[in-house]
Structure formats: structure tokens, C-alpha cells
Amino acid sequence: MTDTPRRPDERKSPRLRELATLPVFFKLAGRRVVLAGGSEGIAWKAELISAAGAQVDVFAPHPSGVLVALAADVANVTIHPRTWEASDLPGAALAIGDAGDEPEALAFRGAAKAAGVPVNVVDAPAFCDFQFGSIVERSPVVVAISTDGAAPVFGQELRTRIETLMPDGMRHWARAAKLWRPAVQALKLGFRERRAFWETFTKLAFANLERQPTDADRADLLAGLSFDRAPDKKLGSVALVGAGPGDPELLTLKAVRVLQSADVVLFDDLVSPQTVNLARREATRITVGKRGYKPSCTQEEITSMLLSLAREGKRVVRLKGGDPMIFGRANEELSELRAAGIAVEVVPGVTSASAAAASVGQSLTERDVARRLQFITAHARDGKLPTDLDWRALADPRATTVVYMGLGTFPLLAARLMAEGLPGSTPAVMVERATWADEKQTRSTLADLSASIASERPRGPAVILIGEAFARST
Ligand code: SAH
């Protein structure tokens, strides 16, 4: 033996790391499973196991109400109102017991082992041959999660995340795959063609999880038409997706799903890197930073990029800060894409005004004080304060006004509002980088906020909330 280190490429083939448990998917249809105990925990296991098609024999001298209700509801659950006996176990596929104490747990485990039946004792991992994980059910697709008892809450959170990536419609496509399989086999395709068929099927499924597969899909796929209509030969699609104010947790479930099936993601600087990271790993990410007064991509360039990517057959996601339908020039993109016959959809998002109000902890509306809510942009095409704003409406002391893109022109806006009659004492709150880690709030008044903006030079983006609804509560 020499101790010359091996170069990585000389290492032995990589092996699996140690597995805490082996996940297996056990067929229980028509088999018998023995459950011992009358608790609600046993009732839940009985329901799970009967859903897997087993004949469930529950031995319980004192069954809980939930268990009795289950047995009344589900044909394959039978309650035997007595204590379990060793003779109940032979022939069972699995045994699950809720033991009152350790001797009982030991006895149950011993009887199951003697009968050669794998055993689980509820809440006693040391007595278990197998454990139950958290489940995401889109049957026939089933995902099971185990932390080997290390952290059940961690496992549940993971389950929630996986749930969001698996729309319910997934089950229909997986069922269709099962049903259509014989017809595909009958075609006697070679390996490569068969593989291509299922790849096309899978692409179609993942692009259409929100709808059920149809006979037309089946006919198309079987006739091989889909080979000619491979995604790179047909038109792609564009989704304008609201990325929210910054915190990725404020994305909608739909936004996450769309991101997860994107081929290309175009995003501007207002979108946080964590949000962009939620896109499918293989997706191409393109920044089209278009912020403030120095556009790095013009709107025309962005629109033409969307058009050409969609024409190449790509599923394009255009991530826009906040809600795409608020001060995001969405109509320009939508109308050109529609005119080109490209499928477009819009996924709404949390707009900055909502995020700022949540951060400030005060409602944008308030009975008697603010019955009207108006969103304005203080940034006209030329970068100046727009001249065509409705000044009477903005000077209404009983309205809340949220100013977007207002940092540069706020002094002019404030002066004009005061000249139109809105008191200088009206509360004005600036919320910079709402929901980002470095969010900042500045509480002031219409008369004084300009001075803070001048001295603090906010980095933005920021919204300014104006109105009596933001009076400090006493
Ligand atoms: N569609 C976006 C608005 C785009 S216009 C939305 O619905 O929020 C850009 C302006 O949005 C910025 O000038 C700023 O006024 C505001 N903005 C965007 N993100 C923000 C954030 N995280 N905090 C505060 N204001 C924000």
C-alpha cells in the first residue's frame, strides 16, 4: 500500500451512502393486516391501510368512536371486540399494535415475529420493523418521506413543499399512462421509439397538469402525430408571473408551479435571487433589468425576446415584481404575444402596496377615514411627475393613496397635493424594499417626508403610503 492520494477519477465507482431506512412500496390489495388497540392512532392506521386495499382486522376490547365510525363506513375494516391473541397473527402481511406499556409491546412484537409478520408498534421505534412516513398522495403516484424518526415536523414541512409541486391533476395523467400502456405495447415499438413516446407523453402531461388527459391526446400520441409536433417545432407559451415584493414565500403556489416547468425565465431587478432560484434547475435565466431611469433592456427588446423564445417552442416565464398587472407594462407584452398567436397566461402576485401595509401593520382602508384606495405612479414617460393625475381625488383627505415609483418626484407631488388642499400633517409612510431582509420604514407627514428622502437617499424600490389610515395609533 502506498499513501499517494488517488486522483478523483481513479476512485472506485461511487457507492450509495448509508440509508437510514429502505423505502419500499408494498402491495396490500387483498391481504390481511392485523391491528391491535382501539386508539385514534390505530383508527388512522386502519384508514390508511384499508385505502391500500387490505382486509384490516382490528382487535380492540374498547374501540374509540373514530374507529367505530371508520368500521361503519369502510367495508374492509372489521373490529373484533376483544384483546389480540397470538393465533390472530399467522398469515398477516403486517402487524401494527398500539401497546399500553412495554411488556405488552414486547409481547405483541414477539407474537408477530414468531408468525414471521413484520411489525410496527405505535410510537415505539425500538420495537418496529418498519415505519410510516409522511405521504403525498396522487395515486398511482405516491411520495413517501421519512426522517427515520429524527424530525417529524421537518418531514411535514418537506411534505408541504412537495405537495405544492404536485398539482392534483398529476394523478389523472399517471392513471392515463397506466391505462394507455397496453395500447403502446401493442405498437411493438423499438426501445428508442418507445422511450420517445413516453418522453412526449411526459412533456404533454407536465405542460397540462391542470387539465385531464383526453381521448384526443391519446389518439394524437398513438398516431405518432406528437412526434411531428415535438415541443421544439410548435409554438411555446408565455406566462407573466407576479413575483411579489421580494420575499419568495409570498409567491403563489401557481407561480411556483409555473416556474417549475419553465424553459426560460426572464426577470427584472426587482425580483429577488431566491425567487429566481425557484425556477426549474435546467431553465435558462435571463435578466432584463429595467429599473428606474437607466433601462438596461428596453420594453421593445423584452417584448421581442418573449416573442422569439415562444416561437422557438419554449415555455417562457416573465417574472415581474409585485403584481404583473400593476404598473408593469403588461398590456404591451400581452397584446404583441396575442397578436402573434402565442398562448399567454397571467399569474397574479402580491403588489408592493399590500406588502408595505402588512409590514407597517396598518390597513390600507379604514371605515370613516379611508373608504377609497388609489394607486398612482409618480413617474411619467419622461421621468417627471405626471401632469394628468386627478389632483382633486388625490387631495381627498378621506382616501388612501399609494405612490409607486415616487422617490424622484415626491417633493413636487407633496407640494402639489398641499396646494390642492391636503393638509401637510397628513401621515406619509415610506416603505423601502418591503419584505426584503433590509426593509426600512420611515414614518413622517406629507410636509416632512421630502426632507427625509433628501437626507437618507433611499436605495429603493419604495412605495409611499399617504392618508389618515396611517395615523399612529395612540
Ligand atoms: N408590479 C409592481 C410595481 C412595479 S413598478 C407591483 O405590483 O408592486 C416599480 C415600483 O414598485 C417601484 O418603484 C416601487 O415603487 C414599487 N416596489 C416594487 N417592489 C417593492 C418593494 N419590495 N418595496 C417597496 N416598493 C416596491
- The beta-strand count equals 19
Low-confidence stretches: 5-11, 225-232
Termini gap: 79 Å
Heterogens: S-adenosyl-L-homocysteine
Overall morphology: extended
Q: Which structural class is indicated by helix and strand composition?
A: alpha/beta
- Report the C-alpha radius of gyration, rounded: 31 Å
Mean pLDDT: 90
- Order of neighbouring strands in the sheet with most strands: 3-2-1-4-5
Q: Could you estimate the helical fraction of the residues in percent?
A: 25-40%
Counting DSSP H or I runs of 4 or more residues, the number of helices is: 16
Characterize the biggest β-sheet: 5 strands, parallel
In short:
This protein has 474 residues and is of the alpha/beta class.
Describe what you observe in this structure.
The chain contains 16 helices and 19 strands. With 474 residues, the chain is of the alpha/beta class. The strands form five sheets. Strands 3-2-1-4-5 form a five-stranded parallel beta sheet, sandwiched between helices. A five-stranded parallel beta sheet has the order 10-9-13-8-14, sandwiched between helices. A five-stranded mixed beta sheet has the order 15-16-19-17-18, covered by helices on one side. Strand 9 (264-267), helix 10 and strand 10 (284-287) form a beta-alpha-beta unit. Helix 5 (170-186) runs antiparallel to helix 6. It is extended, with a radius of gyration of 31 Å. The structure holds S-adenosyl-L-homocysteine.
